């Protein structure tokens, strides 16, 4: 079940949420706020979302992953608001009977999230400037 | 003026991230001319660019959604359906 939150993401809770006796494999991906992008230094990030569409798109991505691989449970969560260095911005946890499916589904979910889910990131650079990041 | 002929469709557009900052509005009601066919995203985009010329700096990068689904320029916007306009996504 996808979620958006303004509270810090608890990675242990994500793992608990997908663990089941049907799964022999559990994977966890965390995206965290990085200090350096090439030579530029980040102080903080601000995330915003078009929330109803973001949830709908994350649900579609989870459903696609279930069609492609035999997985037990998927949890996708994205943080919104002001994040400082090292904080978790996104978490994807997948459990599956076997590790191949867990890794593949987890990679698919995070890649598609970054490609399609309407969430935007604004950099707060160390020189005092702000900049929306657009691929 | 023939009151039975509808000349425009009011389309509610929500804007996000840089699209919102360039327009200084998070939401706008646009009067989109109806030209004897259903209103499409291309019509909404034209009306939006006319009202907010600064959006041109995002140009062809602007994305659109009808409701909670991505839309392309040919997507029809039914009366009352909300539209969203935003730059390329950058979550994660």
UniProtKB/TrEMBL annotation, chain A:
<dbReference type="InterPro" id="IPR003448">
    <property type="entry name" value="Mopterin_biosynth_MoaE"/>
</dbReference>
<dbReference type="GO" id="GO:0006777">
    <property type="term" value="P:Mo-molybdopterin cofactor biosynthetic process"/>
</dbReference>
<comment type="pathway">
    <text>Cofactor biosynthesis; molybdopterin biosynthesis.</text>
</comment>
<keyword id="KW-0501">Molybdenum cofactor biosynthesis</keyword>
<comment type="subunit">
    <text>Heterotetramer of 2 MoaD subunits and 2 MoaE subunits. Also stable as homodimer. The enzyme changes between these two forms during catalysis.</text>
</comment>
<dbReference type="GO" id="GO:0030366">
    <property type="term" value="F:molybdopterin synthase activity"/>
</dbReference>
<comment type="similarity">
    <text>Belongs to the MoaE family.</text>
</comment>
<protein>
    <recommendedName>
        <fullName>Molybdopterin synthase catalytic subunit</fullName>
        <ecNumber>2.8.1.12</ecNumber>
    </recommendedName>
</protein>
<dbReference type="Pfam" id="PF02391">
    <property type="entry name" value="MoaE"/>
</dbReference>
<dbReference type="InterPro" id="IPR036563">
    <property type="entry name" value="MoaE_sf"/>
</dbReference>
<keyword id="KW-0808">Transferase</keyword>
Automatic annotation (TrEMBL), chain B:
<dbReference type="GO" id="GO:0006777">
    <property type="term" value="P:Mo-molybdopterin cofactor biosynthetic process"/>
</dbReference>
<dbReference type="GO" id="GO:0000166">
    <property type="term" value="F:nucleotide binding"/>
</dbReference>
<comment type="similarity">
    <text>Belongs to the MoaD family.</text>
</comment>
<dbReference type="InterPro" id="IPR016155">
    <property type="entry name" value="Mopterin_synth/thiamin_S_b"/>
</dbReference>
<dbReference type="InterPro" id="IPR044672">
    <property type="entry name" value="MOCS2A"/>
</dbReference>
<keyword id="KW-0547">Nucleotide-binding</keyword>
<dbReference type="Pfam" id="PF02597">
    <property type="entry name" value="ThiS"/>
</dbReference>
<dbReference type="GO" id="GO:1990133">
    <property type="term" value="C:molybdopterin adenylyltransferase complex"/>
</dbReference>
<dbReference type="InterPro" id="IPR012675">
    <property type="entry name" value="Beta-grasp_dom_sf"/>
</dbReference>
<dbReference type="InterPro" id="IPR003749">
    <property type="entry name" value="ThiS/MoaD-like"/>
</dbReference>
<protein>
    <recommendedName>
        <fullName>Molybdopterin synthase sulfur carrier subunit</fullName>
    </recommendedName>
</protein>
